[in-house]
Specification:
There is one protein chain. With about 280 residues, this protein is mainly alpha-helical. It has a single domain, classed as ABC transporter involved in vitamin B12 uptake, BtuC (Orthogonal Bundle), CATH 1.10.3470.10. The protein is built from 13 helices and no strands. It has helices at about 1-10, 10-40, 40-60, 65-85, 90-110, 120-125, 135-150, 155-160, 165-170, 175-195, 200-210, 220-240, 250-275. α3 packs across α10 (about 175-195) and α11 (about 200-210) runs parallel beside α13. It is globular. The N and C termini lie far apart (about 40 Å).
């Protein structure tokens, strides 16, 4: 612990890692709340895993895997939203197919690329210690876009998340805001890839918000508490993984799972105390 604190002031990569935790937690807290409330975790998973197609193509072409991930994530968000709106009764099958095909395309392009690139492995499994200044600027931009959209369309997102039929009666374009929300999920996926990697991104998107939902019912409070939980989980996971040289992404997700279980237990104890 002491070595960790000392090295924060000594090495820029440690400072980048901590800033990455903070920036990722903003998007995670806001969008994770919508994902939990709207119960679109499966669709978020479809977006997250289909991103591998864009990363694989970008890697094959010698471009930035993160740029490929962003393009692929946005396309996936629009297509998955459109599929869900048109064929709602078959959404699980269609999204599973989209999920699998996206990953398969990514694997094919990666396999056709000569050599081994450790940077790609960091995108797949996460290594927050490899975050660069350029990555931090990108994360800041993505956070800013998410915050601006939520501030502009908060009421529309809120109405759409809870009651689509009532929203339509009020003249809200539910389809537009639904697809826009999925595009914001896509941007958050790109944010979190830097922290825990593509494979584990869904857990970090959902678990802090699900933990926050145990204690608050207000959407605004849930967003704030989820963001705070995300900061605690990511920074603590980074600290725990640093000294024994454990995979940071996996450590963060295990901690998020423990955090969620503890939140359920704590809420159960609070309810029992109130009854007594």
């Amino acid at each position: 612990m002491i070595n960790f604190i000392t090295e924060i002031f000594s090495y820029s990569f440690m400072q980048h890692a901590l800033l990455g935790c903070l920036l990722a937690s903003v998007g995670c807290g806001i969008i994770g709340t919508y994902v939990v409330v709207k119960r679109i975790g499966f669709m978020a998973g479809g977006i997250a895993h289909s991103v591998l197609a864009g990363m694989g193509i970008a890697y094959f072409m010698g471009a930035s895997p993160l740029a490929g991930a962003m393009i692929s994530a946005l396309i996936s968000g629009v297509l998955i939203g459109w599929i869900n709106l048109r064929w709602r009764q078959h959404e699980d099958i269609l999204i599973a197919a989209f999920w699998s095909v996206g990953m398969a395309i990514g694997v094919i392009f990666i396999s056709r690329t000569e050599g081994y690139n450790i940077d790609l492995m960091s995108y797949l499994f996460g290594n927050i210690l490899l975050i660069t200044t350029r990555d931090l600027y990108l994360m800041l931009i993505l956070d800013s876009v998410i915050l601006v959209l939520v501030l502009l369309f908060y009421r529309q997102f809120l109405a759409t998340a809870f009651d689509e039929e009532f929203s339509r009666l009020r003249g809200i374009n539910v389809e537009f805001y639904y697809i826009l929300l999925l595009c914001m999920v896509a941007l958050t996926v790109v944010l979190l890839i830097q922290v825990v990697g593509l494979i584990l991104v869904l857990a970090l998107l959902i678990l802090p918000a699900a933990s926050a939902a145990q204690f608050v019912s207000s959407i605004k409070r849930m967003m704030l508490l989820s963001a705070i939980f995300s900061v605690v989980i990511t920074t603590t996971g980074l600290i725990i993984s640093y000294e024994p040289d454990l995979p940071s992404g996996s450590t963060i997700i295990i901690l998020a799972g423990v955090f969620y279980i503890l939140s359920i237990i704590t809420q159960g104890m609070i309810r029992k105390l109130r009854k007594n």
